[in-house]
Amino acid sequence: MTTNKHVLSWLDETVALCKPDKVVWIDGSDAQLQALRDEACSTGEMHKLNEEKLPGCYLHRTDPSDVARVEQRTFICSKKEEDAGPTNNWMAPEEAYAKLRPLFDGAMKGRTMYVIPYCMGPIGSPFSKVGVEVTDSIYVVLNMDIMTRMGKQALDQLGDSNDFVRGLHSKATLDPDGKYICHFPEDNTIWSVNSGYGGNVLLGKKCFALRIASYQGKNEGWMAEHMLILGIETPDGDVKYITAAFPSACGKTNLAMLVPPEIYKKQGYKVWCVGDDIAWLRKGPDGRLWAINPEAGFFGVAPGTNAKSNPNALASTRQGTIFTNVVLNLDDNTVWWEGLDKNPPKNALDWKGNKWDPDSGEKGAHPNSRFTAPAINCPCISPEFNNPQGVPVSAMVFGGRRAKTAPLVYQSFDWNHGVFVGSIMASETTAAAAGAVGVVRRDPMAMLPFCGYNMGDYWQHWLDMGKELGDKAPKIFNVNWFRTDDEGHFIWPGFGDNMRVLKWILDRCEGKADAVETPIGYVPKAEDINIEGLDGVTVDTIKGLLEVDRDLWKEDAESISELYAKFGDKLPKELAAQLDALKARLG
Ligand code: OXD
Ligand code: MN
């Protein structure tokens, strides 16, 4: 399928190592993919769902020991340990290759090796990058078909170039003790073995589009971020774009596909989803920052997705979708998960494939069960989704789950302060009970498990990008949908009503809204958050949500010092100065 000698010689090496019975190039044609779906159904790897209710949809179950990303077995294999930094597991490249080579040796005997050329980003885009993933899993092929632009079009994009990411994956024996997800940023290479779970094996996603790409971005002057991209269209048809980073379990996919509240819909506002997980950003010819979504699908968490929490995500899963580790309803051959509706099927199999009784108290779907759905299914997918130039970014938003500390929204004083705000992102791991604050996990820019190099250097790269963009840089904000009252109840309604906060953010970007200066940044005047049509929320509620408690922030500043101390002289001076300045403002 290609004459690219770099691809062919690398493939020769992998064939010699893995010793498959057969090698199949994935061209991306419908006929080839359908034959693979049929084959996977005949072996039990996949299960075909009700063609009338869920056309083109399949169910897959992973090994029960293999249901999530495995951070403790994920390594950055840079030559120097300090280039992986204090937040990554590190292994020397020669040690990692030596450890993994025997695991791959002959791992594909009796199996077929699939060669998947794929493109991250729209075909023909200056942002896009090509990868080739070799795998022994049909499930991987079919997921990569949804999540990327793959097949012949990707090879055409690559041409004769050597600039592609070499991804090698084998399920091998699924031995949990032999599971490794190794990244070799200096070799443009990823080796993943003994897993079949999406986040570990769909190598275009976290492995390439974040870990390897963040490293490439640093060297090439662009950014790979764990960010959604959404557009807000005003009644006169103008669209402004926002990117936003959140740690997991903060409603990122919901925000990406937000349904505006009635008051905005009536006026003609619309929200468009460009991406729900990853953004690649670079300076455009006009000096602004432009973003693409490198992916072509959504690999979303199923539980909790329903017609109210995220109707657009649910609609996206109604055709051409692969479900992983959800409940199978035996009566009508459809799927179910906790939080879909209040009617769990009585005659059903759980995520492990065992007979399931909804009254047993056991969960039917795995809490990390997933849907892999084509982005084009999404009713609010942006008309710019395939635009090779991407979309211009007005605002970048960071967020976390904080019971008391962070206000509903605040704006950074400037870009460098915004980088500081991103670097101190945090979520509380446990819900706050009666005023007690949960355990804080710092997750800078939501990149803790995804930054492919030293996070100190990564922060420096953010600071450098700000210099490069100058006064055309997006404005940076922080949001927190999760403030609780003294009984631990959420105060802010969240979901579609988050639009009210995004609206203030855009008004700030356009110089249309005022703000109040606090030690941590600019917060809105309470009256400037539109609460029309919101039950039980008054201007006083908003005042409470915007309060900045100096004592809590002083405590927080101490915990930020602990985080920063890990980086030694890799901590950019500018961020140390930002922390000192915060402490001084807090008094
Ligand atoms: C994801 C994650 O799956 O961030 O997107 O864990
Ligand atoms: Mn993610």
Outline the secondary-structure elements:
Elements: H1 5-18, E1 22-25, H2 30-43, E2 47-48, E3 58-60, E4 74-76, E5 89-90, H3 93-104, E6 112-120, E7 129-135, H4 138-147, E8 149-150, H5 152-158, E9 164-170, E10 180-184, E11 189-193, H6 198-201, H7 204-220, E12 223-225, E13 227-233, E14 239-245, H8 252-256, H9 262-267, E15 270-275, E16 279-283, E17 289-292, E18 297-301, H10 311-316, E19 322-324, E20 327-329, E21 334-336, E22 348-349, E23 355-356, E24 370-374, E25 391-399, E26 409-411, H11 415-423, E27 426-428, E28 440-442, H12 455-469, E29 475-479, H13 498-509, E30 516-518, E31 521-523, H14 539-546, H15 550-565, H16 573-586
Parallel strand pairs: 1-6, 3-19, 4-5, 4-10, 7-9, 9-11, 14-25, 25-29
Antiparallel strand pairs: 2-3, 6-7, 6-8, 10-11, 12-16, 13-14, 13-15, 16-17, 17-25, 18-24, 19-24, 20-21, 20-22, 22-23, 26-29, 27-28, 30-31
The protein binds oxalic acid and manganese (II) ion (MN).
Oxalic acid binds next to loops.
Concise account of the structure shown:
This protein is of the alpha+beta class and 587 residues long.
Describe this structure in words.
Helix 2 crosses helix 4 (138-147), helix 11 (415-423) packs across helix 16 and helix 15 packs antiparallel against helix 16. 52% of the residues are buried. Strand 10 and strand 11 (189-193) form a beta hairpin. The protein has 587 residues and is α+β, with helices and mostly antiparallel strands. The chain has 16 helices and 31 strands. Strands 1, 4, 5, 6, 7, 8, 9, 10 and 11 form a 9-stranded mixed β-sheet that branches. It is globular. Manganese (II) ion is lined by residues 226, 277.
